[in-house]
Amino acid sequence: MTQALPVLIQGGMGVAVSDWRLALAVSEAGHLGVVSGTALDTVMIRRLQLGDDGGHIRRALAAFPVAEAAESIVERYFVAGGKQADQRFSRTSMRREKPSRHLEDLLVAANFVEVYLAKQGHGGQVGINYLEKLQAATLPSLYGAMLAGVDYVLMGAGIPRAIPAVLDRLAKGLPVELKLDVKGAGSDDEFRARFDPAAAMRGCVPPVTRPAFLAIVSSHVLASMLAGKLESPVDGFIVEESSAGGHNAPPRGKLQLNEAGEPIYGDRDLPDLAAIRQLGLPFWLAGGRADAEQVRQALELGAAGVQVGTAFAYCEESGFDPDVKRRVLELSRQSKAQVFTDPLASPSGFPFKVVELEGTLSDADVYEHRTREPCELGYLRTAYRTDDGNIGWRCPSEPVQDYVRKGGAPEDTAGRKCVCGGLLATVGLGQIQHQGAKEPALVTSGDQVSDIARFLPPGADTYRAIDVIRQLLPEG
């Protein structure tokens, strides 16, 4: 990391909540804007099918190094004027350990597009955030972001021990591989995803720069392992507490729930900042750090700064549907905005923070009346070893009979929500289900959603990213 470290990192939230517009606004202001790297292939093709408002996707694709791939994507998915409101989005094949040429092109191009757009018109730094669990898409996604000049890669929801070395090799244009977590795999099984930059670039590999890698951790034990016991250690940490939005690390020890049904976090779940500080790598604190006093305290504790998500999620530049922003801001204004840390919602098995908002999947009636449909996105599926030694994929949010047929336990499906579909609906990219209903939204935020109305300027109904920055860093 040769440039000055940012004091403020904007969180890489959800699916397209931290989109290129938000990251651009934060980076333009001199801080680290971060785009979400989750589901970018689907985000890109659905934006194209909605008519590519402003022509931004096509403008970025025109700069993609493999013109034939970019032209094929536009020809296949762009709908001039946008698809009909009741028409289903065209879908891609789901991510597998051996993606087709078309799917690999989509993954590389979509990550290139999001970072390319976020970096336009300023000299600031841009990062991208990934989930370690989404392994099948990781390698081409990383390379696409690097092609666009991404400065930082952030990754959590797992143990990203292999990623620093992967970045080293990708920066040299070398083939890479990633061992996949496969349920039921034996010691003799070798399940790996592979990616070759030369093949993806059709033999002409452009030079790329290795980005800094920040691991998102919740304990000093994991931080210590990632700092020194790897072929290539990480460059720093985002130290995230349980108040942060999205997926949370589960509590240590036996899972216990409070009266509301939420996981109980205790002293054992607080990160040992002294131990992390002794590792000698820069770190940023995340979760409940959205005011100037919390920033000051983080710096006094030895942190390079803070990562803030929820405060930025409801600003004008974020990807949340405007109606979602309006309704949650109004609840916050009335001191009624609440988050439920749901131990069951996510198919990943991680606790997942859900905003309680009428008409969304947090509403019990909406959840009960939603028809479970066969998975067509597949981001949070789990890989498992089939009887013939190959890889199968299942998700506890898919139809129960499908999950059980693939060897899953029926009790694992209780309370599970289609997080992939719900998050896409929250940013205006929801699918039309086969029976004609619109996919209901699922809104995730950190605990501080209860207080986001304080970012509203006097007399205003909306606020901008710069309003958040000015409150966090009033001295500049």
Write a concise keyword list for the protein shown above.
476 residues; alpha/beta; TIM Barrel; 13% strand
Quaternary class: single chain
Which architecture name of the domain at 8-319 and 455-472 does CATH use? Alpha-Beta Barrel
Q: Segments where pLDDT lies below 50 for 5+ residues?
A: none
Biggest sheet strand line-up:
1-10-9-8-7-4-3-2
Calculate Rg over CA atoms: 21 Å
Q: Name the overall outline.
A: globular
What's the number of helices? 17
Note the gap between the termini. 22 Å
CATH C-level label of the domain at 8-319 and 455-472: Alpha Beta
Structural class estimated from helices and strands: alpha/beta
* Major beta-sheet overview: 8 strands, parallel
- Percentage of residues assigned to helices: 25-40%
Average pLDDT reading? 92
- What share of residues are in beta strands? 5-15%
- At the third CATH level, what is the topology name of the domain at 8-319 and 455-472? TIM Barrel
What is the number of strand segments?
14
